[in-house]
Write a structure and sequence with these properties.
The complex is a heterodimer of chains A (181) and B (236).
Chain A (H helix, E strand, L loop, with lengths): L4 E6 L5 H7 L4 H8 L1 E2 L14 E7 L2 E3 H13 E7 L1 H5 L11 H9 L21 E6 L9 E3 L6 H13 L14
Parallel strand pairs in A: 1-2, 1-3, 3-5, 5-7
Antiparallel strand pairs in A: 4-6
Chain B lengths: L3 E6 L2 E6 L4 H7 L23 E4 L2 E4 L10 E3 L3 H17 L14 H8 L16 E2 L5 E4 L8 H5 L9 E4 L6 E4 L1 H5 L3 H10 L5 E3 L18 H5 L7
Parallel strand pairs in B: 1-5
Antiparallel strand pairs in B: 1-2, 3-4, 3-5, 6-7, 7-10, 8-9
The chains are: A alpha/beta (181), B alpha+beta (236).
């Protein structure tokens, strides 16, 4: 049997969850024996070259590009995992959720104390993704199979869950690994 | 008179006295019933429903129901556990609980229950309701994003004449806790500390006290809430 293939991405996240992934330390050597990586910042593969078994999603959806990538991951990956608070509930980017987009853009590009924007231009290039009305948790956009909470999720949690998924074993999570901060 | 009462919890024979509520009687017998709005020493409110148990096949809140002879109490059945999870998940989705940025994280009882139940993500959609932060008081912040309306502050924080500093305002979906602005202005340091301590979440905070305990040394970092309520007997 060929090795399971993992893909990872960071949507509206800070890459902290990926850093925590690297915190599995020397176990990463065991991991690369067990799996193969495809599209991921870890190996810098930018586009999917094949269908994958496990997709790890960091961050929620704050713009149209996030939605596009998340849907692509859903198509290409058999199992999708939200890892981190942002993917699960929007996280800190979702602090803007009770503020209108108009107000957010005005604060960032027009009214900010240090803003210099004499022409009063808001970013409108068609190359730029459109900002969404609010930040959405991943499972409100596509079906997510598992959720790993934490900011960031503890490295032990990521390892325990990945290891169990790859080997198809049951997992009993210790109290210390499920944390929301 | 406090009579001795016999009852069962999940088919285990238990005894207590008739002046206790079910939560207390269970604790005496080493059985943890999760609670959130309940606070030792004040009249129970039964507002959060986390302590719901089945007594003689009926759903009742264990914090407000006095124990009685012959009660058959169910606590840890699959449906009751699922019900409790649902209540906690509802609280997480109804308010704006950004745990990573909260000063109370690690010492929060709502979070501690979620840790205990190992809730990985709520089943309900997040509401992102519009709430506000009141920082007008010289001593405390009042963050309505995190308030779960448990009424603990109303019941516990009182001035020397017995007046509540906090109270409900509005009704139904607009309901929120607010403090009496006159009493709030003369709030003593002790009462402000007390208010922060009784708040199970990070809604009431004393200014300048946030993030006092480093990660790893906070109340629920290593010890689940049930082991704090009922410490394990130490081996001699």
């Amino acid at each position: 049997m060929s090795r399971p293939i993992i893909a990872t991405t960071s949507l509206a996240g800070c890459f902290g969850c990926h850093m925590s992934f690297l915190d599995i330390d020397e176990r990463i050597l065991d991991l690369i024996e067990l799996v193969e990586f495809n599209k991921s910042p870890i190996d810098d593969i930018k586009t999917f070259t094949k269908d994958c078994d496990i997709g790890l999603i960091e961050g929620g959806c704050c713009n149209t590009e996030n939605i596009h990538i998340l849907k692509e991951f859903r198509k290409k990956c058999k199992i999708l995992i939200s890892f981190g608070e942002c993917a699960i509930m929007g996280g800190l980017p979702a602090l803007r959720n009770d503020i209108s987009v108009k107000e957010c853009l005005a604060e960032a590009y027009l009214d900010g104390i240090s803003t210099v924007n004499k022409e009063e231009i808001l970013p409108n290039d068609e190359e730029l993704p459109m900002i969404l009305n609010k930040v959405y948790p991943c499972h409100e956009v596509v079906k997510m199979d598992y959720h790993l909470p934490g900011c960031p999720p503890r490295a032990d949690l990521i390892w325990d869950v990945l290891h169990a998924l790859i080997l198809g074993t049951d997992v009993e999570l210790p109290y210390e690994v499920v944390k929301y901060d | 008179m406090n009579n001795k009462v016999n009852f069962t919890i999940d088919d285990k024979e238990c005894t207590s006295t008739s002046d206790k509520y079910i939560v207390e009687a269970a604790r005496e017998n080493g059985v943890y019933i999760p609670t959130l709005c309940n606070y030792d020493g004040v009249k129970p409110a039964g507002s959060c429903r986390v302590c719901t148990v089945k007594v003689n096949k009926r759903y009742l809140t264990a914090c407000t129901t006095p124990i009685a002879e012959g009660m058959e109490i169910e606590v840890n059945t699959t449906d009751l556990q699922d019900f409790r999870n649902a209540v906690v998940e509802l609280l997480f989705t109804e308010g704006n609980h950004f745990c990573p940025a909260c000063e109370k994280s690690g010492n929060c009882e709502l979070q501690a229950l979620a840790y205990k139940f190992q809730i990985m993500a709520p089943r309900f959609p997040f509401q992102f309701n519009e709430r506000y932060i009141d920082a007008s008081n010289p001593k405390i912040y009042h963050d309505h994003n995190r308030c779960i309306l448990c009424k603990r502050c109303i019941r516990v924080v009182k001035d020397d004449k017995g007046k509540s500093v906090f109270a409900f305002e509005n009704r139904a979906r607009q309901i929120r806790i607010n403090f009496d602005s006159k009493l709030g202005e003369v709030l003593t340091d002790e009462l402000a500390e007390k208010a922060m301590e009784v708040c199970p979440v990070g809604s009431i905070l004393v200014k300048g006290k946030g993030f006092k305990d480093p990660i790893g040394t906070r109340k629920f970092d290593h010890t689940p809430i049930d082991k704090i309520v009922i410490p394990e007997k130490q081996n001699i």
